[in-house]
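[09:14] KT: can someone run the structure on this one? pasting the chain below
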Amino acid sequence: MTTDHTTLSAAPDPRPGADLFAQAPCRGLDPELFFPVGEGFAAAQQVRRAKAVCAGCPVRRACLREALRLGDTEGIWAGLTAAERRELHQLARAQGPLSRAARAAGELLAGRPARVRNAERPAVALALLGHGWSEERAAGAVGVSPHVVRQARETVRQLDRMRDAA
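[09:31] RB: done, structure tokens below
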């Protein structure tokens, strides 16, 4: 049984920025490569080959956003398996929408107060760390303990390691 998996290689997409996927190295490859069947050695080898195609892809982030937006539950997208994408999606959902976290961090960086939901606090703290704030300062700014910030940072590191190993 074959499934039609032509999302990335379909006819031109009318959405703004859709031509971005024209730069993807997977464009024109057999889509079956990105949809391994089974759990055995052959499937694991196929996953590695698909992830190798994604490794240096210039549109990897856009691909991941599209996979998360579509909720696609099968295949390799942006170098991540469905299980890895589910974990990433759960992390993002637990931390709240990242765009709100980024906006809140921007407000705090500008010295303005920001309303931050409890679930978004670790993501806002991580954004502040990215701007050179210490764990203690970021934790204090968003009202969590430095331990919570360290946990969030470690979770992101684990996801990065998973992605890099892919």
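[09:33] KT: thanks! Residues 1-16 have pLDDT under 50 and may be disordered.
[09:34] RB: yep, looked fine to me
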